[in-house]
């Protein structure tokens, strides 16, 4: 009887140890960024709570210490949070190409900022991202917009976002 109890305790302990080790090895380690997966019409915007339904305007940001990307339905929603965070904590920011829907790191993307009534985005910020400069220039021409890199977009954030963010 004692022997069965000891065997049972060892077996339960082994199962618990296995489950705990699987859980902790599946978590991102320091500096490790998980794969971005956006489930259209299921994932909600981290800022406004709307469902992400159009990948062309979707954006994501991975912040140190978190387990998954923060996801956004509009580049403007992501930008509003980005400018309020400590930049040392932001490990990766991803947008999606307006033409193909392909994920692009912000450092590699081109952005078009156009009048909100011309380039209609989910939350009305009028910002789209592009993998190729030529595509960005074409869309900017069509909608009367301006082409810029990420740094320029961040510099213009308060103008783009208007009163949607608190003033520092």
TrEMBL record:
The chain crosses the membrane at residues 6-27. Pfam families: NosL. Keywords: Membrane, Transmembrane, Transmembrane helix. It comes from the Archaea. It comes from Caldiarchaeum subterraneum. InterPro entries: N2O_reductase_NosL (IPR008719). This is Nitrous oxide reductase accessory protein NosL. SUPFAM superfamilies: NosL/MerB-like (SSF160387).
